[in-house]
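Sharing in case it's useful to others searching the archive later.

Someone asked me privately for the predicted structure of Glycosyl transferase group 1, so I'm posting the question and my answer publicly. Question first, with the sequence:
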Amino acid sequence: MHAPSFPNRTLEAYADIVEPNRLDRLRLLSEALSDRRILHVNSTATGGGVAELLRSIVPVCNDLGIDTNWLVMDATDDFFAVTKAIHNGLQGNGPPLTEEMKSTYRSVTERNSAELEGEYDLVVIHDPQPLGMLDRLAETMPEAAIVWRCHVDLTDPIEEYRTFVAEYMPQVDHAIFSRTAYAEDVIGPTTSVVYPSIDPVTKKNRSLDEKTEKVERDRLDPLSFDRPLVTQISRFDPWKDQFGTLEAYRRASEEIPDLQLALVGAMAGDDPEGMEVYERVAEEAVGDPNVHTLTDLPDTTVNVLQRRSDVVVQKSLREGFGLVVSEALWKRTPVVGSNVGGIPLQIVDGENGYLVEPDDPADAGERVATLLENESRRTRFGANGREYVRERFLLPRQLSELLEIVVETLGIDSNV
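And my answer, the predicted structure tokens:
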């Protein structure tokens, strides 16, 4: 286990962005938790949405006076191959779950749990990767409350994977999901739904001055911001369906001949499929000079891409939530997204973007073309998207709901 670095972050950084009563609520909750210790555990410090959330949540909690730590598992490639299979299986498509896979999973999670030191009042386990640590935690921290924060789409899991994860649920006091449908078949712990959020003050999401924008735009040459541009920003992963986005782009190009497409993604440390998918996508796009396949861009560069794209696409086949949708909407860029997972919670069809069926790239292409041909509609959708995210998907709201669950799980006075 190791503790990743994270930036300084203060609650006051959000004072000009969110309503004062939301910050006041956080201060009140923090008073109730001032003498408690909280630990977050996940499987990677880079490249994924969970890591991004923790990189903001943990320092804000500490600024509030809540003693909060974050530890990342140390694991082998074999382990991550197994946990990616578990992730895929929980989302409905994975290989048979073998005893050898289970053994690999349990040996690595047990080794990591043996490295945990200190005492905590509450431990938040993120996603399936660290769940195997719970057996040892029950022995070493018998008084600690356990919260499982599941970020995965559980609407149609393969039964053997669902059963494997369910074995750990009796040791969980509270489970948090990103959508109501994901919690329907979970038996054992108390459950809650908390929508994820973006952090509006990070390099990826904050406003940029003209000089910074120019530097980042130059970095993206030969991609041109003087021609129509559609972008998808996702991990290179089969569920993100970059191939479907390529089909949608080709359909839209029939009506918008000078259209460009940027397929951008980071490589998550716990995802062994990433490079393979990236190479397949790059090979598929290699003959088209208007398609740009990019990886591991700095956050500020991603920020510029989301701001200066005419349309953002998120054509996922499954999606736990898809915060890249809110990132684009926050920057006033309309989104065409699949009607799966958490995406329809963020896109109001015909108001800030369009929803399409995940297996219909032709419709996605038509919606993209419709937006590209109507600048006033793009502007209206962009303004609507900014306000929709401000009201629902910024970090202080998510953190408030998380801390309310912590207070409840620890049995602190419910009048807080």
